[in-house]
Specification:
By secondary structure, this protein is α/β, with parallel strands linked by helices. It is built from 10 helices and 9 strands. The protein has 2 domains: 173 residues, Rossmann fold; 91 residues, Pantoate--beta-alanine Ligase, Chain: A,domain 2 (2-Layer Sandwich), CATH 3.30.1300. It has a 6-stranded parallel sheet with strand order 1-4-3-2-5-6, sandwiched between helices. Strands 7-8-9 form a 3-stranded antiparallel sheet, covered by helices on one side. The radius of gyration is 19 Å and the shape is globular. Pfam families: Pantoate_ligase. It catalyses: (R)-pantoate + beta-alanine + ATP = (R)-pantothenate + AMP + diphosphate + H(+).
């Protein structure tokens, strides 16, 4: 098992990355909020395919949490995270404290349009993506990485970050990696630990329902009917549905015709746990 180098300050981070650059090495970054699972370690593995080194960042970003969301209850396990990342082959872990990211007097926010204002996650968490974009922009510039690895499970986030990096001419390639799933199809997520045994079985319906909707659309069913059927299925099984919708796969705008690249996205509550998933059409 590789033992990743742990750095907690920007100065230490830049000393290490400057050494890599002097050796002619390329490197990827995997931004996370910790609670590392196999979805994250898969991103590390994908980062290693594209570059010589991988940095994983672990930072529970307070700007992503609204007033009613409990920042203090977000799962944290630094020792376990370091062990899992070492087993995955990660070379360095950047674990800044909030003051390192948002020093005294910090007053800048990246404000977004486009995919960040698509009426999906932003409808339920209006300030979420501005917080994501602000911290990700900082992590991109702090690490200076060549590649940034993001999972497709958080599909809107992937499109927001990709658009932001392009719009701001950040010299980094954002790479989307297909969702890592359990053997039964459930998308890997840090939130899955909150599901009861019964809910864990019920949760499979979110992926199966949107997968069936995608099949129906490919078979000729109109978009709205397919979404209605998927929504009804989830509600019948006890989900509180926030949305089930089909969007343009790049812009996340409502599609104008069936020939566009399409993505079905869903978010629903099962008990006290909110699950999201998406599939291509």
């Amino acid at each position: 098992m590789m033992k990743p180098k742990l750095v907690r300050t920007l100065a230490a981070l830049r000393r290490e990355t400057a050494r890599w650059r002097a050796e002619g090495l390329t490197y990827s970054v995997v931004p996370t909020m910790g609670a590392i699972h196999s979805g994250h370690t898969h991103l590390v593995a994908e980062g290693l395919k594209r570059a010589d080194r991988v940095i994983t960042t672990i930072f529970v970003n307070p700007k992503q949490f609204a007033a009613h969301e409990d920042l203090d209850k977000y799962p944290r396990d630094e020792e376990g995270d370091v062990r899992k990342l070492g087993q995955a082959g990660c070379h360095m872990i950047y674990l800044p404290n909030p003051e390192e990211i948002y020093p005294e007097g910090f007053c800048t926010t990246v404000m977004l349009g486009g995919p960040a204002r698509a009426g999906l996650e932003d409808k339920f968490r209006p300030h979420f993506f501005d917080g994501v974009a602000t911290v990700v922009a900082k992590l991109f510039t702090q690490t200076g990485a060549d590649f940034a690895m993001f999972g497709e499970k958080d599909y809107q986030q992937l499109k927001v970050v990709t658009r932001m990096a392009r719009d701001l001419d950040l010299p980094i390639e954002v790479v989307g990696i297909p969702t890592v799933r359990e053997d039964d199809g459930l998308a890997k997520s840090s939130r899955n630990v909150y599901l009861s045994k019964q809910e864990r079985q019920q949760a499979l319906a979110i992926h199966s329902s949107i997968s069936h909707a995608a099949e129906r659309i490919r078979g000729g069913l109109d978009l709205q009917s397919a979404m209605t059927l998927a929504t009804r299925t989830l509600m019948t099984l006890g989900f509180k549905v926030d949305y089930v919708t089909v969007r343009n796969a790049e812009t996340l705008a409502p599609p104008q015709h069936r020939d566009e690249p399409l993505r079905i996205l869903a978010a629903a509550w099962l008990g006290k746990t909110r699950l999201i998933d998406n599939v291509p059409v």
